[in-house]
Amino acid sequence: MKSKSIFSFFIFVLILGIGLAAAYAVYDVSNVGKTAGIGVATFLIAILISSAIKVADPWDKAVVLRLGHFHSLRGPGLFFIIPILDTIPYWIDTRVITTSFKAEKTLTKDTVPVDVDAVLFWKVMDPQKAALEVADYLSAISWAAQTALRDVIGKTMLSDMLEGRDKISNVLQTIIDERTEPWGIHVNSVEVKDVLIPPALENAMSMQAQAERERQARVILGDSERQVAEKFGEAALTYANNPVALHLRAMNMLYEGLKQNSTIVIVPSSAIDTMQLGSMAGLTALTMGIGQDKTAKENSAIAKASAD
């Protein structure tokens, strides 16, 4: 029930003030009853007129009953009713209203207890039906939403619920809208906020996901090893048919090893003969030359840093 408007109270005070001023103007000591009658009559008139004046907000619709029968919907703005004959049992809010609802410890189709929180966005499209077809439409739509949520949870697998919240929201919207349509209420949308599962099951699902990732990593690693082996096989065939290429590859590998590490590399004598590097003294000289070049570069860098 909406509270009395300030405008009606202002009219009541204004009429009462005018009546009291008139009573004071005709006040006579010899005829006090007449003055009192004017005051009482003014008071009653002020109550009747202020009761007849109603002001509805832009989003409100007033349901007017006349002698127990539906008469009209009034508002928004200023309107008048007949006191005593007309009553306003409901002021219907026609804005979009949000209602939170939840289902606790509800079993899914695969018997997993879950807690689901959701929000309902709805609007009164027919204030007359909302006032006359259901006793308390606010409570009714809340209970309708909760029962619909429990029904949907009981028919849905846990995996589908965790992955397809949008689908569940659409199903809930359809079910709740069908239930509330006779009440003149339209459901704009339903949003599932959260789906909570038991901690033990959450840990088990986390371990399952981790194991699945490890399996995928091993499969990818094995596939990579297979591709590398195939490429090595192709390279071996190329080297078998082209000894010059194998000779150049061996020399390059030996040079890179000596250049980067500057250490002793032990290779078979047959490999030295194949790469035509000469005797062991020639190979040692090559190693020392690479080491000296590297040392000279390091000394040059140190001298430049000191000069700076």
In the CATH hierarchy, the architecture of the largest domain is 2-Layer Sandwich
User: What's the number of domains?
Assistant: 4
Per DSSP, what share of the residues sits in E-state strands of 2 or more residues? Answer: 15-25%
Note the overall shape. rod-shaped
Number of strands: 8
Assembly of the depicted chains: single chain
Order of helices and strands: HHEEEEEEEHHHHEHHHH
Annotated CATH topology of the largest domain: Tetrahydropterin Synthase, Chain A
Tell me, rounded to a whole number, the average pLDDT.
79
Structural class: alpha+beta
Trace the largest sheet across and list its strands: 3-2-5
C-alpha termini separation: 88 Å
CATH superfamily of the largest domain: Band 7 domain
CATH class value of the largest domain: Alpha Beta
CA gyration radius, whole angstroms:
46 Å
Instruction: Specify the biggest β-sheet.
Output: 3 strands, antiparallel
3D architecture notes:
By secondary structure, the chain is of the alpha+beta class. The chain has 4 domains: 6-91, no CATH class; 97-197, Band 7 domain (Tetrahydropterin Synthase, Chain A, 2-Layer Sandwich); 207-239; 242-300, no CATH class. The chain is 60% helix and 21% strand. It contains 10 helices and 8 strands. It has helices at 6-25, 32-52, 127-132, 137-154, 158-163, 165-180, 199-241, 243-261, 269-275, 280-307; strands spanning 53-56, 60-66, 69-74, 77-80, 86-93, 97-107, 113-124, 185-196. The strands form 3 sheets. The chain has a 3-stranded antiparallel sheet. Strand 2 (60-66) and strand 3 form a beta hairpin. Helix 7 crosses helix 8 (243-261). It is rod-shaped. It starts with 5 loop residues before the first helix and ends with a helix. The relative contact order is 0.06.
